[in-house]
Amino acid sequence: MTQERVKTTEFASWKNLEAHYANMQDKTIAELFKADSKRGSELTIEAAGLFLDYSKNIITDETLDLFVKFAEEANLKQAIDDMFTGKIINETEGRAVLHTALRNRNNREILVDGKDVMPDVNAVLDSLADFSERVRSGQWKGFTGKKIDTVVNIGIGGSDLGPVMAYEALKPYSKRDIKLKFVSNIDGTHMAEALIDADPETTLFIVASKTFTTLETMTNAMTARAWLIDKLGNEDAVEKHFVAVSTNAEEVSKFGIDTANMFGFWEWVGGRYSLTSAIGLPVMLAIGSENFGKMLDGFFAMDRHFAESELKNNMPALMAFIGMWYNNFFGAGSYAVLPYDQYMSRFSAYLQQMDMESNGKRTDKQGRIVDIQTGPIVWGEPGTNGQHAFYQLIHQGTKLIPCDFIGFSKSHNKLSDHHDKLMANFFAQTEALAFGKSSEEVAAEGTKESLISHKTFPGNRPTNTMMAEELTPETLGALIALYEHKVFVQGVLFNVFSFDQWGVQLGKVLAMKILDELEDTNAQLSHDSSTNNLIERYCANK
Ligand code: F6P
Fold first, then answer.
1. Buried residues in 335-344 as b, exposed as e (16+ CB within 10 A)
2. Which of 92, 95, 160, 214 to mutate to test the pocket of ligand 1 (most atoms within 8 A of CB)?
3. What is the dihedral of CA 436, 442, 443, 447, to 10 degrees?
4. CA quadruple 463, 467, 472, 474: dihedral positive or negative?
5. Which of 67, 227, 242, 333 is the most exposed place for a label (fewest CB within 10 A)?
6. Residues lining ligand 1, Cβ inside 6 A
7. What is the residue-level pLDDT of the chain in tens, covering all 542 positions?
8. Which residues are within 8 A (CB) of 424 and not within 5 positions of it... i.e. 6 or more apart?
9. How many Cβ atoms sit within 10 Å of the Cβ of residue 318?
10. How many helices (H) and strands (E) does the chain have?
11. Strands 463-468 and 50-53
12. Cis peptide before 384 (omega within 30 of 0)
């Protein structure tokens, strides 16, 4: 049962944070650095192979101490424990939240309804590994006896974004003679383009859906099934070309996939937290079970750090505090995630669902409308591309956009001096954002008077810098777990339920109603005048 809690702004610790903000709001990062010559090495933390420098923020030790006090008043430690031990913390859906069990590499017992989940978790991992090795080695044959060279993952949201992101991120570890494609959009174009050069004899479809009822995924899966049967001329081909990943065995078998070819997971795995469940199958097919295991090791290392470290030395908690500092006190509505690694091109898109579907809520756990800002907007692109697109606004615009920079010491592709050039930009950007360039400096360069203010950089734009030696399965796992736990901490502090997503329902229901209307030429439209007009226009022109 949800415990009573006063609204956040009534917390004594929140009031202290507000008073502290009044003192801090005009401080600059430059001043803070001037006051402490060791700041750049002291405001750092290492965990699970990741190094975080959070010195280029408008914070002091006191800021973090006050956040720790706030987290204590909000019972964060208890909330962490409740998640890791399988309490029903997803109260609106009546579920435990145990993605951490999926990478619980020391097999510590985790009970759900009195039953240890670890034997089932390990059994699914073994069957995924067995299946992946059979496909990778060519032992698994298509209907006509040929080995698989193309895998199409059909899924959306959490059943797509994690696998695509991790597949892209870990490409250097992947078996290049198996091509992976991901189809998510219900727009027929997505499937049509995926099938355009696919050979039905050598293509395997993974239908990935936690519920196995999602309109987009089911529509795409039916289309793929019809395509395969049409091309191979035999319905029996489905067995060798379709596997399912789901929690819903009944719907899987209704669809016509033998449940022997289904990899299961459990309702205590949220869609956006499901990459380390069977939903990660396409990633395992690409990189192999051993590397997949290493990715789980990385997740686990960060899970342990999070569960066991004091809040002041806890990387996810620190990131959560710093994020809230800007979101809730400085009024920053968004933050940018900027990986300096092309392989991380889908990372911010993945984080968008993780953060925005989790904490984009306005009702608190007691059912009241919240009294503070909740989840921020997440966005971003890999550097250096972003530099030539939107960094202008971050440097000189009127909005405060805190940024997370992510970089690696070693590149997987040692092409001449590319990596040094990439990393030179990486370091230059956070320096420029923090310290800017004063009008005096601009004037001293002999700049025309009328251009001085245009060429001045105010600085004081906060950044976190995260570095790891190399983008490996372990570092990727640790990085994802870091953000998962950061989002978790913020959800606890915002006092919202982070593991439901009721906000996606209304649009889905309305779409089904409108679909009927689009298919029935005599339908009486009863929407608002704008929606009626748009539907009529579409129907007249389609
Ligand atoms: O519509 C949102 C959502 O429910 C996400 O939370 C989820 O990841 C996605 O749809 C896909 O759901 P499923 O895996 O059940 O197809």
1. bbbbbbbbbb
2. 214
3. -150
4. negative
5. 333
6. 156-159, 209-211, 214, 217, 271-272, 357, 501, 504
7. 678 999 999 999 999 999 999 999 999 999 999 999 999 999 999 999 999 999 999 999 999 999 999 999 999 999 999 999 999 999 999 999 999 999 999 999 999 999 999 999 999 999 999 999 999 999 999 999 999 999 999 999 999 999 999 999 999 999 999 999 999 999 999 999 999 999 999 999 999 999 999 999 999 999 999 999 999 999 999 999 999 999 999 999 999 899 999 999 999 999 999 999 999 999 999 999 999 999 999 999 999 999 999 999 999 999 999 999 999 999 999 999 999 999 999 999 999 999 999 999 999 999 999 999 999 999 999 999 999 999 999 999 999 999 999 999 999 999 999 999 999 999 999 999 999 999 999 999 999 999 999 999 999 999 999 999 999 999 999 999 999 999 999 999 999 999 999 999 999 999 999 999 999 988 999 999 999 999 999 999 99
8. none
9. 25
10. 22, 13
11. antiparallel
12. yes
pTM comes to 0.98
Q: Which of 388, 414, 448, 542 is catalytic?
A: 388
| Amino acid identity at 372 | I
Residue 156 Cα, ligand 1 centroid: separation in angstroms? Answer: 6
Write the burial class of residue 481 (CB in 10 Å: 0-12 exposed, 13-18 middle, 19+ buried).
Answer: buried
Catalytic hit among 357, 381, 474, 484: 357
